[in-house]
Amino acid sequence: MLRVWSLVAVAVAVFGFGVWLVSPRFEIDSPSLVDDWIAVTQGGQELGELIRHGNAEDQRFRPSWTVWNALQWHTFDAPDGLVGPNTWNLARLAIVVAGLMLLVALALPPPRGRVEAVVHALLAGVPALLVVTVPKFARDLARFGTQEPLLVGGMALGGSLLVLAARALLRPARLPRARVATLLVCGSVLWLAGVYQKETSLAVVPLLAAVAVAGRGRLREWPSLGRARQRLLVAIGVVVGLPLAHVAIESARIAARGDLVYDAQVDAGRGVVDGLEILYDWSTEVFSITARRVVIAAIVLTVLVALFRRRLDLVALGALGTGALTLVLAAQSGVAVSRYYLPAYALAGVALALSLARLPVVLGAIGVVGLALVFLPATEARTEVEVWTVEEQAGGELVDVLAVLDANGCTIAMAGVDLETRLALAALVARDERPRADGCASSDVHLVLRPYGEGAALASACAPGALELVGSPFRLAGGEVEVHRCAELGSAAVRDPALGLLAPEDLVAARSFEPGG
Questions:
Q1: What DSSP designation does 111 have?
Q2: CA-CA distances (angstroms) from residue 327 to 22, 151, 276, 335?
Q3: Using N-to-C axis directions, what is the helix angle for 272-286 and 314-331, rounded to 10°?
Q4: Percent share of the chain, pLDDT over 90
């Protein structure tokens, strides 16, 4: 019982700490210009496409992400409020913490005393603690649209619950039916949510193989089991394996069409090396030197413990193998973003915790204390979320400004803004239900731009002395965006970097911003 309560206490502590780290996001009162806008404006359509055709996208296969977005943005007060999305986001964080902890706890033998029970519980909390204290990951956990947290948490917690159900079925003791049914249902739902979250779920195969080999001794009870238990165990195998086969088939079909992720060619794996180089080079932007040493320590300690015990820790080895494979699959995209590293880092934490637990209990306790001293209080992670929150609030303020201009019938032109931001602004402004008015002078043109490149060209379309900055620049993630009121267009032709030489009125027409367009 002490072991269970120790695990619960550590889980609550790590979850509470994670909530504190992401809590600045509660100040945001509008959908993000990254990912959220799609879920708000197209989530219902994508869910309908998924139900009718089995997939909502041509270049991706991530059905549970589509379902999650629909739940997140179309339940409780969403999409008009963010209480619902924030609640679902906290649930996702809880799933990550519980999943990683239970994965470690199930891989450890029963503790041999109270001290070891407490130390094992603390070690089980290490992977989740390591994840939430990485500043870039704290930002990813604060975002609603990130797939990797539910990928990791859903598969870890769902798989662990299915393991608990399988263990109960393999015991000769009387079967607690209600408990087993709960484990089977919850485990299956969470496992499916994780597997179908993203194609990277296929990387779990090495860890699954390691768990199967490590637990093969329990299958000695198979001949003595009743048919009902045997059928339930087979059903667990089907629930685990069939979705992975489905993801593999759908991913192969997408790859056969030439694109897998973000329009990047799979090219029979020949682009993986270049992708891994990109991920390696960008890892310094995601991890501190201390965090990178954690990964190295996990690998080295797994090897040293195997040599010391003269026996491989198959689960730790499988975790490292699956982590490495997630990076190989992510490398096919040809881009690097912080969330791509989250599964590999979390699984490195699992291997580190398992290896520390194989050492004498005193050394395990020292390892926990050392990690806590190094990574706590993680003020940098909270600061990262605070900076991101300011950027998100600026995006919401820009939507409000453009919605007012649109409601007043103002002519708006936009340049120098990346495609997703432009599409997001158009979609979110179109949702605004302000009463229509006629508050703009017929000669006024409002220019939304970044003050360089195409944005500078658009600004030069205004007559000298007729350009006025409206408010302060909006500090978005990709750089500051400015809104200017142009009282009069110039007469000289303007050279746009992309469109060439155009008359000012033609350039404004070409750069016209149309909400909903």
A1: P
A2: 25, 14, 7, 11
A3: 110
A4: 79
